[in-house]
Amino acid sequence: MKKRIICLAVNWPLILLLVLSGCASGTSSLPKEKFADAQPVTVSRLQNGQVGFEINENGRIGDALRDLFARGVDALESGKYDVAVDTFKSVIIAAPFMSAPYINLGIAYIRSERDAQAEEPLKKALELVSGHPLASHEYGLLLRREGRFDEARTVYESSLKIFPEYFPLRKNLGVLCDIYLNDLGCAARQYEMFLDAQPGNEQVELWLVEVQGRRNR
Q: Could you say which of 23, 34, 124, 193 has the lowest number of CB atoms within 10 Å?
């Protein structure tokens, strides 16, 4: 797995939400009525999910909104989090049916240490795309930081029912079960499944050995 990357195809150029690129920063106001309602979401698994996913949220999106989204991505990458927040809020007003700006808004809040404000957009993204891997990843980590361990587990397990190949979630679920929930059986299963797909990860191999040793004591 090349990092935690998911491609989102939303009738604007593909955006890598964790490997971000774009141009200038800024915001603008776009009337919501100019854009069509969303069509059904479709998911394409890249190399059977081993590389990532394209989550296609079809809607008629204009050039101005594509440019605004790209400026938000650039602001997020550049550490201009207040600009990113304002920009993604503007995109959401114009296209409330797209999960991508909600996820990026949540990430902007998290990176600017505003976890409490990140929860609502991440939950909204999961309402729009059930089990969305990246939204689940970010939301699960947020819940873990807040000590809401059972909720984090539910988020990870719900996403893995839909996206079982998204192995960063298996790793995170393993860590959650291992360190925070003391469910060593769960931890061992997740580490083993991760290593079946991604052999040779020395860190996870060490974690699995440690868990197995604790289970045998």
A: 23
